[in-house]
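Budget justification note: compute hours in this period were largely spent on complex prediction jobs such as the one shown. Inputs:
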Amino acid sequence: MERIPILKMGPFLLVTIQVDLYDRLALTLENDLINMVSKTEAKGVLIDISAVSIVDSFMGRILGNIASMSKIMDAATVVVGMQPAVAITLVELGLTLAGVHTALDVEQGMELLRNKIGQIDTDEEGLYDSFI
Amino acid sequence: MIVLSKEKLSIQKEQDVVLFRNRIKELATKIGMSLVNQTKLITAASELVRNMLRYGGGGITHLEIVSKNSIPGVRLVFADEGPGIKDVTLAMKDGYSTGKSLGLGLPGAKRLVNEFDIKSEPGKGTTVTIIRWKNGL
Amino acid sequence: MNKESAAALKGKKKQILDTWMSNQTKDAALRDDLMSVAELQQQSEEFLNSLLKAFASSQAENPDSAGYEPIHDILSEISISRARQGFSPRETSAYILSLKEVLSQMLEERYKEDTTVLYREIISMNKIMDSLSLVTTETYIKGREEVILRQTSEMSEISTPVIRVWEGILALPIIGTLDSARTQVVMEALLEEIVATGSRIAILDISGVPTVDSLVAQHLIKTVSAARLMGAECIISGIRAEIAQTIVHLGIDLTNIYTKATLASALKMSFSMLNIQVSKAAQNGQIGSKQNFGF
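Corresponding output:
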C-alpha cells in the first residue's frame, strides 16, 4: 500500500508530501505520524506541502487533527510551503487552520520549531519571551 | 450557452478521484484558466466527489467545456443515485453535517465556483452542477 | 419586400456598390486615416452580396430570420472593429445609413410609375435597414465596453506594485477602490511575491483607499488569512481617522489583525517582529559602528 515517508531529524519529524492526496492516504499519514510522535517522543512535526496543489476541507481537517493530537503529546506542528493558490482557495472555502503553525519554507519552519522548544524551556525559567 | 466538449467519468472508488481531478486540470488548462481559478474549481470538485462517494455510493460525473458570450468555462455535473438529501437548504449551511466532517463541503464548494445548482430527491439521488468561467471571480 | 424589387436591386448591384462607395468616401466622416478605401470596398462588396441574397429569400421581411444571420455577423464584425479603431458612433452608423440612401434611390427609379408600390417597398426596405442599423449601434457599444473592461483590468494590474522595503519585509501600497476583481489581483501578486522573496512580513498600506466598507474590509481580512496560511504575517497601515470611525461604526472586527496608523510605524513593528535593530549612527562621525545598522 502507498505510504508517505516520515523522516526523523533530531527531536523533529519531517514529512514531505510529494503526491496529491486522496482521503485514505491522508488518513494513513495521520495515523503513522501520531504513532511516530508517540514512539520517538518528538518535540515537533514539520509537514512540507509545497508540492501539493489541492487542499480541500478533508485534507484541511487532517492537518488540524495532526496539530491537535501532537499538541496533546507535547509536540508542535508546523505546515510549510503552502502554495498561494491553495491558500486563497482555503480562505474562500472558510478554512483557516486555527491551531496549525505555518512557515514559508522548511528552513523557516525549522527555525520556528526550534524557537517553540526554546520558548518552553525559557518560559519555565521566566527569562524572556521571543516574538515567534 | 454552447457545449464545446463532453465526456463522462464513473466514480466508484477513491482512486478514481485522482484521475478525475487530473482530467479537470487538463480541461481548465486547455481553456487558459488561471492557476488560482483552477485550484478553486478542482477543490470544489474534490468536495463534491467525496460527498458522492460517501453519501451517494459513487456515481457518474460529466465534464464539459462550455461557452457563454464567447467566454469559456468548465461545467461539471455530479449525479448519484444515493439516498438523496432531505433538507437541501440545511445542507447548504456552513457547519452542518450528518457525517463527522467540518460541514464545509457543499457551502464551501458553492463559494469556490461561479454557478452552483443542486437538485435532490429523497430516495432517488442527488445531482449537483457547477460552472467556473475562465476569468470569473 | 417583393421578389421583383429584390431582383431589380440585384441587377443594379454594380451601380449600388459604386454609388454607396462614393457616398461613403465623399462623406467627410470617413476616416481614411483609420481604414484604406480598398479595404472598405472589399468589406462593402461582401456585405452587399449577403444583403441582396437575404432580400431574395422567402423571409426577406423578417430581419431576424436565418437569411440575415451572415449579415448580422458581418455587421457585428465591422462595428466591433470600428469601435476598437476609434471610430465615432456617427461614423459607424453612417456605413449602413449611406447604403439605405442608395437603395431608396434605386427603388425610386424602379417604381417611378407606381407610387403605391414604391411607398410599400420603401417602408419595407426601411424597416429592414433600421433594424440592421440598431445591430450596428448595439455591437458598437459592446465593442466599446470591451475596450473599457480591458483598460480597467490593465489599470488594476499596473496600480498594485509590491515593494521590497527590507530583507524579509514587503510593502503593498493600495491606491483606489478595492473591489472583488482588484482584490484577487492584489492578493495573488502579494502572495506570489511573498513566496518569491521568502518574506515573512507584508505591510498593506491603505492610505490611498478612499473608503473602507464591510466588503473592502472582508477582502483585506481574506488577504491576511491567506498570507497567514502560507506562513507570513500582514500589517495593515495607513488607517486614517475617518476610516477608523467607519470601521467601528460598521462593526467590522479587525482585532485579529495588526493595524498601524502609518507605514513608518508598521515598518518599526516589522523590525521588532524580525528582531532587527535600527538606530542612528554615532554622532562623532563614525558611520555604522558595530551595533548599528547604517542608513
